[in-house]
Amino acid sequence: MTTIDPLTAAAVVFATAATDAVYVMFTSAVVARRRVPAATWSSLWYLLSSYAVISYTENWAYVVFAAAGSWLGAFASITFLHRPPGGPPVGAAPD
Questions:
Q1: pTM exceeds 0.85 for this model
Q2: How far is the C-alpha of 78 from the C-alpha of 74, rounded, in Å?
Q3: Could you tell me the CA-to-CA distances from 88 to 30, 47, 56, 82, 91 in Å, in that order?
Q4: pLDDT confidence of 75, banded at 50, 70, 90?
């Protein structure tokens, strides 16, 4: 059995949750064709994902925590960005 450090596991969950949330924001900025926000979200995306990758490549068991964080981040960010159907994407210029 592999030993799991609870602090590292929590950090991996947080990092992957934040990574997925940032990825959703990046995608939203791309859809709205906003270059500076898209580039900024992209750089944050890579910074956050690097922590999770480095953490769980040393111990395969952290992949489970990465998957849980990914699910939580995507769910939370889509919940936050939820708009009524037919509206403009988040970040779109106002009319």
A1: no
A2: 6
A3: 13, 29, 38, 11, 8
A4: confident
* pLDDT tens-place string over residues 11-54: 888 888 888 888 888 888 888 888 888 888 888 888 887 777 77
The answer to whether position 89 is within a domain reads: no
Handedness of CA 31, 81, 84, 93 (dihedral sign): negative
Query: Is residue 76 assigned to a domain?
Result: yes
Query: Quick one: CA torsion of 90, 67, 58, 11, rounded to 10 degrees?
Result: 60
Which domain, by its residues, includes 15?
6-81
Alpha helices per DSSP H over the chain: 6-31, 35-57, 62-81
Residue 38 inside a domain? The answer is: yes
Alpha-carbon distance values, 34 to 27, 50, 67 (Å): 10, 24, 29
39 domain-assigned: yes
The structural domain count of the chain equals 1
